[in-house]
Amino acid sequence: MDRAGLTHMTKIEVVISGRGSAVVRELFRSTGATGYTSVSGISGLGHDGFHQGRLLFNEHDTLELLITVVPDDRVDALLDGLRPLLAESSGVMFVSDTFVSRPEYFT
Amino acid sequence: MALAGRTLPPAWPLETFIAVNPLGGLEHLPFAEAIAEAGDLLGARGTLDESAFRAAHADGRITDADLLGALTRFDPGSIVGQPIDAGGRLLDPAAVLLADLLHGDPSPPPVRVRRTLSEQHAPEVAAIVDAQTAKWCAAYVDEGHAAWSMPDRDQGFYTAWRMLAPRDPSLPSPVRHRLRLLPHRPEDAALRAMADLGIGESSRRHYLEAHLSAVPGWAAHILWRSEHRRGVDLVELLAMRLAYEAALLAEHPLATASEGEDSPAAPTPTVEDRAAKALAALGVEPAVGLAAAARVLERVSVAARSTVWLDAYEAHYRDLLLERLAERAPTLRADRAAAQVVFCIDVRSEGIRRHLEAAGSYETLGFAGFFAVAIRFRTLAGSRSTAQCPVLLQPRNEIDERSAAGTEHLAARRLAGEQALASTDEAFAAAKNDLVGPFALAEALGWCAGPLALAKTTLAGPYGVIRERLRNAASPPAPTTLTVEDGFSPEERALFAEAALTMMGLTRDFARLVVLCGHGSGTENNPYASALDCGACGGHRGGPNARAAATILNRPGVRGELAARGIEVPNDTWFVAAEHDTASDRVTILDEWLVPETHRDELHRLSADLTNAAAALSAERCATLPGAPRSPSPERARRHVRARSTDWAQVFPEWGLAGNAAFIVGPRKITRGMDLERRTFLHSYEASVDPDGTALETILTAPLVVAQWINCQYYFSTVDPGVFGSGTKTIHNVVGDIGVLAGHNGDLQLGLPWQSVAEGERLVHEPMRLLAVVQAPLDRIDAIVDRNTVLRHLFGNQWVGLAARELTEAPWQRYTSHGWTPWNSRR
Description:
The complex is a heterodimer of chains A (107) and B (827). Chain A has 107 residues and is an alpha+beta fold. In chain A, 21% of the residues lie in helices and 38% in strands. In chain A, β3 and β4 form a beta hairpin. Helix content of chain B is 45%, strand content 12%. The two termini of chain B are 49 Å apart. The chains are: A alpha+beta (107), B alpha/beta (827). At the A-B interface, α1, β4 and α2 of A face α27 and α30 of B.
């Protein structure tokens, strides 16, 4: 893949219950992330077993995937906040390198 | 800071009072651990105290058999084993355990362990921090009710407070100087204050919890505002409190204390002391058999005794309920029902369903009172819209009330009347708040205010009737419709219709009239009015949802879609909306003008039967309402509850959901004819029409969850009204529309007032955890629980009990973390 002209950044994906997602979004905001993508009602198999996806009348107790992209200098602060949060509740976090074409959107 | 707030429940404002589990943040823990944690955090009691359980035992409300059953469930080995040789007399371990439960020294009251430095070493400073918290929070959240709003409020809480606090003349000058130097960001202010207080990084979380638990009411409401983006969050609250504490302690001679120390807990009796007391109660010389008795008691700690008592208390009710349900023989209906009436699952609906079924060949069903339409509703007057759905959902569809075609002039008259009445109220309020206005107001209207107040107090019934007539004269009703075509796409309408009918098990044998009956509660001068409205409608009246659902289900296009999905609704079936007022027991048919002429006679007969059923229900309710006639005729009862609902001095307008104890999911035939004492949520469900379990999964993950929140709200408001309840109504002062204070300042009061759960010292609500009773295949229930974390927590951690059977003839099974076991009643 040609990455010329793209800017290196870090992508953080968090899978957490709908009840806990507000805290993660607030953490994104307070550590300087300029935006995020959320996907609600996701399903999947984890170490606690299968997790149901969208429920008809409950958006509170389904899993949500939150994705944000931040410059490398903001990653540590964000991870410092996420680690204790996920240590105390069900949820997972994925951190990976990524490249963006419009870095000004993320800084 | 976010972690510190995770154990708090969000506290909704009063205008949409939503019942929540005050310990919702701890549902990932087993119930016993969660209440222990709440004890440490809030100093809150998690069950009734042992003296209350012992009194219930003395009254026969708990039996020895109940206690033995609970001990067995707690530890199967606890009551078996070798008898104890007590000087030639053999004692069963069970006898020793029972003696300890009945006669042991009571468990010490819980103590709030995590406390702030100022609480530990300078209580006067802690009092100032709390008072300042209450003052600024009340000023900020006022929502425009006060004549003067907080300056710079639009810039957010912390910024506005930071500008004003240094000018507060009640604070010493050095403290004001320190506040003047606060950073712009609340996060920085909190960190700086914790550094000044010597709170190390590893202790921060507990220290922040200590601050939040010092004012749990304000913290819980600000958590709600944070989640709903209402201008303030917990970080700002904590920054303010920590800044005050650091600034005040810097000037305080006792400010040399180190990090927070745990407060001393009251001593717990040793197992030897317990054994000696138990043996003495059994008439045995304590020196004999002491060690053996102590070994028996070691299996059930003092802390565990309360949960054993609770289990026994619940078992007594649950065993009896399941026995009664097991005895029910299903009755098969031969003819088409005269009408099918769908009520909300709310426990209050059980009474009117029972009385209506007794009045004729009616079928009733139970369904969440928002009738599966999650709408944002705006009335004809175009006032702000309300979210008419459970708080688990965001409203998906915007629905407006519009004048019916050709009746615009009637709608205009109604609107003009409403506006005139609203203007009068506003003018009166403005005159009251003006500097000079109150004097002129007293001169102009004082002569009639006294007699009017006297009439409202002593003649509440006639006063209510006259006022209603005047209102109707000023603003006469006008036929209106709802904009369901604009609010729902055709696909959404069809999906809603299929989901709603499948969930309630109504997919065949439709009557000519199917009534969707929502509910609300008309009360006067009651800050907690929305707590009595429909929880499934977000603390609002359910009429708009019933109207929207009926409108959709009557659309020919929807009927066609339903037929394509296998649900044939006969052409002569008409859906009608209605609303039950649970305070006055008045049932109102809504949009009656839409009902075809061919169905009018049946509707009038049904309406008459509903009126009679409601009067019978009123008579039943009078037996438990304070000050009501004890055995009134239905007509007298009807007059009494209506007068009561308009009485501005009435602190017991109705009992709401007090007594709620079980949530039954199954066909009505298993409960029909049974007096369930308005204590059970009833959700209709037919397993045979839901082979893939989708409907059951929706019932268990939504209505059951809301019912559990309600159950926990009542439970905790009863077991510790000082922490989880809002105390007595008689000293409540309302802050904006958001909450109440006990007196004129202090913490915002959480939960239900004492008059919602008790009369004087007598508990009206029996605090028990909810029992879910489900008639469905057990493997279907297992599969649903396994894939939903919320259900694994509720059932696996004993927040909700679960009994189930596949068929009416099958014995009840108990859900445990090790699988299903026979219910094993010990009665």
